[in-house]
Every structure is written in structure tokens, then in C-alpha cells.
Amino acid sequence: MNIDDAVRKILQLGGDRVKFVILFGSHARGEVRRDSDVDILVESERPVGLITFVRLQEYLEGLLGVKVDLVTKNALKKRLKERILEEVKYA
To answer: What are the structural domains, with CATH classification, of the chain?
Structure first.
């Protein structure tokens, strides 16, 4: 499964609870290396519990076969948030 398919899967699984999904980092910039992880920001309508969040991360890692760094907008520091928003690939 490729990253675009995985992002669509997040949207499908989350239904109307998911506001948006953002791909950022090396995959969004087209600078992927063999050791690159996949950076995904997920924003939901309601807070998601830690266990659900970790399960989603593990599920995506299984689908993609690489480490996934899954974050929420609220978890990002201001400076990092600004940089991420400059390099995003929306899905």
C-alpha cells in the first residue's frame, strides 16, 4: 500500500470524525530516503484516546512497512507547526 492509499484509509476509518489528514516531512517534500519515516498529522472532531491513537499508528506502520510518526496539531510546538504547514501535502 502506498502513502496516498494509507491517508485515504485514515479518512475512511475515521469517517466524519476526521477533519483532515496532512502528510509532511520528507515524503511531502519528495526527499525520501531508505530510512525515512512517514510523518502524518491527523486532526479529529473529538479528542482521540491514547490507545486508539497508538493503534492507528501501529496499523499504518503495518500497512506501509515503515515507521510512522503520527501527530496532532495541538501536540506541535509553534515553530514546528509553522514549518510543517509550509511543506504539507493535503489528502
So the answer is: 3-90 (3.30.460.10)
Q: CA-CA distance, 45 to 88, in Å (whole number)?
A: 20
Does residue 39 carry a catalytic annotation? Answer: yes
Helix (H) or strand (E) holding 13: helix 3-14
Catalytic residue among 4, 5, 16, 39: 39
* Number of Cα atoms under 13 Å in the Cβ half of residue 26: 11
The HSE-up count of residue 61 (CA atoms within 13 Å, CB side) is 13
Per-residue pLDDT tens digits for 25-64: 888 888 999 999 999 998 888 888 899 889 989 999 998 8
Distance CA 67, CA 26 (A): 13
